[in-house]
């Protein structure tokens, strides 16, 4: 899965009403008009604003973890990568989004058609950040 980094500035604050109850994705239940509080997406999704950036995805190699072609990733450079994290990595100058397999020193796709990518000792390798969230649009917006 390739990525396109987006230059941006994170807004200081934007909040919208958030319903108190969870919404069923199965059979409908009676609607509740009760709003719990305002939810600021920056506060909810971004832990380290100065170290966070966005990027667009391309490809299908991460579908197994719910990341699809055209999704927007929220990447945090301040998070310490752990085994099994979804990371944005630079391997020999190419950016890729993959699962981190520390014990075996490799990157893993989340799709059976893509083989593991070994990280050799002589490779130029750097983790650019940990993917902390993704956003999928159901109605096309500006890009």
Kindly describe this structure.
It is a single chain. This protein has an eight-stranded antiparallel β-sheet with strand order 1-4-5-10-6-7-8-9, with no helix packed on it. The protein is built from one helix and ten strands; from the N terminus they run βββαβββββββ. Helix content is about 5%, strand content about 40%. With about 140 residues, the protein is mainly β. It starts with a strand and ends in an 8-residue tail after the last strand. β7 (about 95-100) and β8 form a beta hairpin. The protein is globular. It has a domain at about 1-10 and about 50-135: Ribbon (Umud Fragment, subunit A), CATH 2.10.109.10.
Which structural traits does this protein have?
143 residues; mainly beta; Umud Fragment, subunit A; two-stranded antiparallel ribbon; 3% helix; globular
The helix count comes to 1
N-to-C span:
18 Å
- Could you name the CATH topology of the domain at 2-10 and 48-135? Umud Fragment, subunit A
* Weakly predicted, low-confidence segments: none
Helix-strand pattern: EEEHEEEEEEE
Mean pLDDT: 83
Characterize the largest beta sheet: strand count, sense, and whether it forms a barrel: 8 strands, antiparallel
Examine the secondary-structure arrangement and name the CATH architecture of the domain at 2-10 and 48-135.
Answer: Ribbon
Helix content bin: under 10%
- The chain-level structural class is mainly beta
CATH homology group of the domain at 2-10 and 48-135: Umud Fragment, subunit A
- Count of distinct strands: 10
Note the beta-strand portion: 35-45%
Instruction: Give the neighbour order of strands across the main sheet.
Output: 1-4-5-10-6-7-8-9
Whole-angstrom Rg:
18 Å
CATH class category label of the domain at 2-10 and 48-135: Mainly Beta
Coarse morphology:
globular
């Amino acid at each position: 899965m390739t990525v396109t980094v987006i230059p941006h500035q994170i807004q200081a604050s934007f909040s919208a009403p958030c319903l108190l109850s969870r919404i069923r994705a199965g059979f409908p239940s009676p609607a509740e008009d009760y709003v719990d509080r305002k939810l600021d997406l920056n506060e909810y999704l971004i832990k380290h604003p100065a170290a966070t950036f966005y990027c667009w995805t391309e490809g299908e190699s991460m579908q197994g973890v719910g990341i699809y072609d055209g999704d927007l990733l929220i990447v945090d450079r301040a998070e310490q990568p752990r085994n099994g994290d979804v990371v944005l990595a630079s391997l020999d100058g190419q950016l890729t989004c993959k699962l981190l397999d520390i014990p075996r020193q490799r990157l893993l796709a989340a799709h059976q058609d893509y083989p593991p990518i070994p990280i050799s000792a002589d490779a130029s390798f750097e983790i650019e950040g940990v993917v902390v969230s993704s956003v999928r649009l159901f109605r096309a917006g500006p890009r």
